[in-house]
Amino acid sequence: MTACAIEGGSAGAAATADPEAEPEPEEPGRPVGEDGEAEEDREAGQAREARGGEEAEASSTAADARPHADGAPLPGGFTLTADGAYAARLTAAPGPPGERAWYPERWTLDGPEPYAVPLPLDQPEEPDARVAPLADGRVLIQRRVADRQMFSLLYPTGPGTGELLLGAVACEEMALLPPSPDGRCVYALSAGEHESSLWLVAGGAFGPEEVARIPGHCSGGVWLDRAGRMLALDRRAPGGGPVKAVAVDLGRQGEVTPLLQIAPESDDRLLLADADSGLLLLRSDAPGHDRLGWGVLGSCLPVRFPECLRLADAAVTPFAVQPGQMLMPESCAVALRIDGAAGSWVGVWRPAGRRLHQFAAPLGWAPGAGYWSRDGVLHLPYANAATPCGVALLAAPEDVEPSSVTGRPSDGAGGTEPSAAVAAPAVCKPVPLGQAPLHRAARSD
Description:
This protein is mainly beta. The chain has one helix at residues 402-406, and strands spanning 30-31, 39-40, 79-80, 86-92, 102-108, 115-118, 130-133, 139-145, 148-157, 160-170, 175-176, 186-191, 195-202, 209-215, 217-223, 230-236, 243-249, 255-258, 268-273, 279-284, 291-296, 314-321, 334-340, 343-349, 357-359, 371-372, 377-382, 390-395. The strands form seven sheets. The chain has a five-stranded antiparallel sheet, with no helix packed on it. Strands 2-11-12-13-14 form a five-stranded mixed sheet, with no helix packed on it. Strands 3-4-5-6 form a four-stranded antiparallel sheet, with no helix packed on it. Strand 15 and strand 16 form a beta hairpin. The radius of gyration is 22 Å and the shape is globular.
């Protein structure tokens, strides 16, 4: 799976920003039991971006909406299935920090009203346990026991909780990847200094199964298709050097191919991908410092680094892309998490619109959790004292360009830059970004 030519703020420039800190390397693990899962740690790089001149707008769809600093965010993280039907989190009843009894909770989101089902066992969970929902309603839990990662499936059974032990992997640290698009499989990554192991920890036939060994230190994790076969990882080569996104083909025993290379020495990480439109959201320091950019998988259009996604005192991270926009990447609405001194709030942006809309988040929102419907409605799960399980709905705002109102051509004012060319695209053969031409004039978005 390949993407094509690159352009941006100063495409082809050598990286000057400090590379993003990598986690301490761990040696790949080995199985010691039956099937299991791993931790959810998909770090997409720190954003140090410059604040645009747009004031936050109030959301008309979320009652009592305000940044999560004003209320308690969902504890223990929040993970959704690829279709948004189920979610899972680790939570606890209110109490002193050292005395809280943690337990998994499953949210059902595809019915007329969202509801939560607690899944406690006889003993409380450790606060560092990780959970992930499956498409059949079961919840995978990962527990660290000494130097092993233990995996089980939890499910409601009458008034209690059933548990199916899957097995364990002898490894001190494992990163749980985003749930597979098929909803049946969960993969985990064990990253070593010179080699990383990819494990199928749920959905296999005989317990945890190592499915690929990848040279270098890997992180991240983004699915590129709806079949759960093509996985993008951010890899640093065994001998060191910049971080580059690569594609791992699980249908070919983990065959690795280049995916992103904007400049030879730049750190190029993939953050999100949409299989319908081919829209890619990435972070790179090729323009001279870390910037959010977008491109199209398998296209000859260049990668862009929109100026409107740079905020002076806040970090901007994409977390959801509108599905169903077949072959229309510039029309996809993108949801972004914005983190500043006042807390976290929500941004909505389209490549074609070139404007960042900002909204207050519902009280108790799990920052970075949410999913789009095909008709452009953003669902934001939240929990607070008044609503233990709620979903706020936010319709994607329309983008109105100055040129459409004044009749004059847009000059790029307002902190944005041109989107892709409007001329009919030439027919060309997609090439890997590592071989993409970098001679195009760079434009600052």
